[in-house]
Amino acid sequence: MPVRISLAEASRRAPKILERGDSLQLDEGAPPTLSDLAGALQFALGDGRIWLNDERMVMIQTEVLGALRARMIANAGMDRTREDLLRVGWVQGVQLAELIKKRFRQDNVTAALAAGPRLHTMEGFAKVVTKRFEFDAGKQQYLGEFHWHDSVEGTEHLREFGVCDCPTCWLQVGVPSGYTTTLLGYPVIFREIECVGQGAQRCVVIGRDAESWGDVPELEIFGLKGQKSRRSDPWKPPSDVKAPAPLPPKDQGLIVGSSAAIQRARRLLERVAGFAEPVLLIGEPGTGKEHFARHLHKLGTSPDSPFVPVNCSAFLGAGEAEVETLFGESGLLKQAEGGTLFLNDVTRLPAHMQARLALTLHDRNIRPYRIVAATGEHPLDAVTEGRLRADLQYRLSVLPVFIPPLRERRDDLPELIEHFMNLHRSRHVKPLQGLTGQVFDMLLRYDYPGNLRELSNLIERGVIYAEPGGKVDITHVFSMIEKAPRVAARVKMDGDASRPKSIAEIHDGRTLTEIEVEAVRTALIEADWNISAAARKLGLTRAKLDYRVKKFGLSPDR
Question: Within a domain: residue 1?
Answer without folding.
Answer: no
